[in-house]
């Protein structure tokens, strides 16, 4: 279990996110890969129309997504843990191809 995790990633813009009280795959199945609170703040390369999405269910208690122009904020309460580790392998392959 992780208490707090801060991270930054770049994918068509910058994303800074924090995850509070995350479980991992070693917990019982009902608690596996859950996070109590996840917040992401984004600044994108491409502008967008204003957008608001509020949902409940589908692996989480509450999720709010809000975008205006290039700014975005995502808030999730008791939802499956966001995981971008699979992207690291893809990014490394792209770096190798660009150097050859």
Question: What key attributes describe this structure?
Answer:
single chain, 100 residues, 62% strand, alpha+beta, 1 helix, four-stranded antiparallel beta sheet
SSE topology sketch:
Elements: E1 2-10, E2 13-22, E3 34-55, E4 60-80, H1 85-99
Describe the structure.
The protein is an alpha+beta fold and 100 residues long. It has one domain (2-99). Helix content is 15%, strand content 62%. The chain has one helix at 85-99; strands at 2-10, 13-22, 34-55, 60-80. The mean pLDDT is 83.
In short, what is this structure?
Helix content is 15%, strand content 62%. With 100 residues, the protein is an alpha+beta fold. It is globular and about 40 Å long.
Major β-sheet, in short? 4 strands, antiparallel
Mean pLDDT: 83
Low-confidence region ranges: none
Calculate the terminal CA-CA distance, rounded to whole Å: 40 Å
Please tally the β strands and state the result.
Answer: 4
Domains, number:
1
Overall geometry comes to globular
Q: Radius of gyration from the CA trace?
A: 15 Å
Q: What are the secondary-structure elements, in order, as H or E? A: EEEEH
Helix content: 10-25%
């Amino acid at each position: 279990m992780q208490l707090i995790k801060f991270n930054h990633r770049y994918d068509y813009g910058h994303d800074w996110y924090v995850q509070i009280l995350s479980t991992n795959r070693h917990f019982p199945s009902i608690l596996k890969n859950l996070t109590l609170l996840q917040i992401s703040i984004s600044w994108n390369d491409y502008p967008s129309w204003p957008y608001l999405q509020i949902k409940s269910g589908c692996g989480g208690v509450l999720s709010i997504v809000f975008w205006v122009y290039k700014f975005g904020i995502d808030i999730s309460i008791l939802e499956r843990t966001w995981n971008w580790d699979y992207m690291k392998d893809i990014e490394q392959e792209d770096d190798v191809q660009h150097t050859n």
